[in-house]
């Protein structure tokens, strides 16, 4: 039995997995307000993990380095030694959250997906774009050896200034913006302030403004276009994360898809790329379970 986890900018989800599958009765979301992961583990173990843990597989929103995984948008650092101090001397695998989401994508059925725009299906590598507290994207390859998902920090690429609204926004941000500065939950209060002159607005309140919707639509179309062409992700774009869920109901996705396709090079290729919302909130945990299952 493996302990698996999905840690984002504002949430910690844990569960147990066996034979590559989540044990549904063990799903748990940590209370907000703590950055001490060992303490979170202790809370979880007190309720759910009475049996032996043979390993750990955790996807988190950050880039592993020097044996640790510091998160990008919160003051938490995952340390394998601290995890072992709580669980015993077990194998600990820490990886970028997009790796978890990429592996989880292949575990989803039709009830975990909602078509937004473009053709119903695509052929080839698939692109996962996670819009939550932050922004990231990854490519999912399927080959003879199975699924391969390279880690990524693609939310920090410079956002192309391809429309008047994006050029004006870059001017307000010192001349340049990275994609996460516009397409993310943490960007919403700033967008509401500079585009709608509203202070301290987040989530649905910020997204209610037409000017905010317009600039996010422009930015997302440009971002998805570049990501698809960089990776030749002709199998489709799959949007994940809480902000993606909110955007699904406020943006005109036919217009977003048309803007992504445009009229430049490879418009015919881009026109064949569908855009789909992932409605299953446990896609990253499903990926962690798959990775854990491959290690047993």
Keyphrases for this structure?
296 residues, alpha/beta, six-stranded mixed beta sheet, globular, 11 helices
Fold and architecture overview:
- This protein is of the alpha/beta class and 296 residues long.
- It contains eleven helices and 14 strands.
- Strands 1, 2, 3, 4, 5 and 8 form a six-stranded mixed beta sheet that branches. A six-stranded mixed beta sheet has the order 9-14-13-10-11-12.
- The longest helix is centred in the last third of the chain and has 22 residues, at 210-231.
- The mean pLDDT is 93.
Percent range of helical residues: 25-40%
Q: Which residue ranges are poorly predicted, with pLDDT under 50 across at least 5 consecutive positions?
A: none
Which sheet architecture does the biggest sheet show? 6 strands, mixed
SS elements, strand count: 14
Short description:
This protein has helices at residues 37-47, 80-87, 97-105, 164-172, 188-196, 203-207, 210-231, 242-247, 253-261, 267-271, 283-295, and strands at residues 2-7, 12-18, 21-22, 28-29, 55-60, 69-70, 77-78, 92-96, 113-117, 126-131, 135-143, 146-148, 237-240, 275-278. By secondary structure, the chain is an alpha/beta fold.
């Amino acid at each position: 039995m493996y302990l698996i986890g999905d840690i984002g900018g504002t949430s910690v989800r844990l569960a147990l997995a066996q034979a590559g599958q989540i044990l549904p009765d063990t799903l748990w979301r940590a209370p907000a307000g703590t950055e001490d992961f060992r303490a979170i583990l202790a809370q979880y173990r007190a309720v759910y993990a009475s049996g032996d843990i043979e390993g750990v597989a955790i996807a988190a929103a950050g880039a592993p380095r020097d044996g640790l995984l510091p998160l990008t948008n919160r003051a938490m650092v995952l340390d394998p030694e601290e995890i072992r101090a709580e669980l015993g001397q077990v194998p600990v695998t820490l990886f970028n959250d997009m790796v978890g989401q990429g592996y989880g994508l292949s575990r989803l059925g039709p009830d975990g997906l909602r078509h937004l725009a473009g053709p119903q299906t695509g052929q080839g590598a698939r692109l996962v774009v996670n819009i939550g507290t932050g922004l990231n994207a990854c490519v999912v390859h399927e080959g003879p050896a199975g699924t391969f998902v390279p880690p990524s920090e693609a939310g920090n690429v410079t956002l192309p200034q391809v429309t008047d609204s994006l050029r004006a926004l870059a001017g307000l941000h010192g001349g340049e913006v990275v994609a996460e500065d516009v397409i993310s939950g943490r960007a919403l209060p700033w967008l509401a302030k500079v585009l709608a002159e509203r202070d301290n607005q987040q989530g649905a309140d910020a997204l209610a403004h037409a000017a905010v919707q317009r600039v996010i639509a422009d930015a997302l179309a440009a971002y998805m276009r570049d990501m698809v062409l960089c990776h030749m992700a002709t199998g489709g774009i799959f949007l994940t994360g809480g902000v993606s869920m909110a955007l699904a109901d406020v943006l005109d996705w036919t217009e977003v898809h048309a803007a992504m396709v445009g009229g430049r090079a490879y418009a015919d290729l881009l026109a064949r790329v569908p855009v789909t919302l992932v409605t299953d909130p446990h896609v990253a945990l499903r990926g962690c379970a798959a990775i854990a299952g491959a290690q047993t």
